[in-house]
Amino acid sequence: MSNSQVLKSPTSKSQAVLKSKKITVDFSGFKAINELDFEVNRNTVHFVIGPNGAGKTTLLDVICGNARVSTGKITFNDKHDLTKMSENEIVDQGISRKFQAPSVFHHLTVYENLEIAMKQKKNLFSIIKANNNQEDERKLEDMLELIGLTEEKDNLAGSLAHGQKQWLEIAMVLMQEPDLVLLDEPIAGMSKSERKKTGELITKVAKERAVLIVEHDMDFVKDYADVVTVMHEGQLLFEGSMEDVQKDSRVREVYLGRKVD
Ligand SMILES: Nc1ncnc2c1ncn2[C@@H]1O[C@H](COP(=O)(O)OP(=O)(O)OP(=O)(O)O)[C@@H](O)[C@H]1O
């Protein structure tokens, strides 16, 4: 499909935080991503959907430096070419990823988990050294409030419910102050009420940064998406609002028709 055929969302006029140009990821001759042009705008909840094997996870992998493109370029904040940077350099530039399984420090409290994430942003030495200053304390308290875990702050992270662990990990990602947050199926294994809270959290997060989410749950995408990109066989099949995505006959044929009807 040519780019001119790709429908643009109403938010496409706002500034792009990430732009990929004709990226290809080649695994021994198999193109998991094939000449993909893709953009993510600021202050946007942007979902990537598509059938199994479409290349969604690989897309997140190349953005965070976990996989390499064979051709193409990914520009971040209009200046950095991510394809030439290490994973750590990419985090330093402002891209943080939360993987599907929560990986919080179970033997530390909720508060201590956030402290570690905050201090990693500053430098590793300060993890063991300095006390928090007032501004740090405020940041930590604000973050606890954002994720609804103020009352659990002195509890061990290992004692939290599954959804709470996921919110804590999202908060740890946010303590890095990224411009772009990458999430892999953030509501997997969550109850209905946890899903709702997660959607509301993501909406709040996107007020200050871009959030790019790989997701299979179409109800969740419908409720919280600003923009939806549909991938198929490593390429962009369609992009737009969820309403437009659902109407598109090609999307229904390769994906949605089988998922929801
Ligand atoms: N390291 C690798 N080596 C070889 N092939 C790979 C590798 N990683 C992914 N692939 C293949 O690339 C294709 C895209 O995989 P990817 O995981 O990105 O798809 P996906 O859209 O995330 O799928 P799912 O929804 O099932 O997670 C798949 O066919 C997969 O088998």
TrEMBL record:
Annotated CDD domains: ABC_Mj1267_LivG_branched
UniProt KW Nucleotide-binding keyword: yes
Domain of life of the source: Bacteria
Domain ABC transporter: 18-258
SUPFAM superfamilies noted in UniProt: P-loop containing nucleoside triphosphate hydrolases (SSF52540)
An MF annotation (GO) of this entry: ATP binding
Alphabetically ordered keywords of this record: ATP-binding, Nucleotide-binding, Transport
UniProt-listed InterPro entries: AAA+_ATPase, ABC_AA/LPS_Transport, ABC_transporter-like_ATP-bd, ABC_transptr_urea_ATP-bd_UrtD, BCA_ABC_TP_C, P-loop_NTPase
Record-given protein name: Urea transport system ATP-binding protein
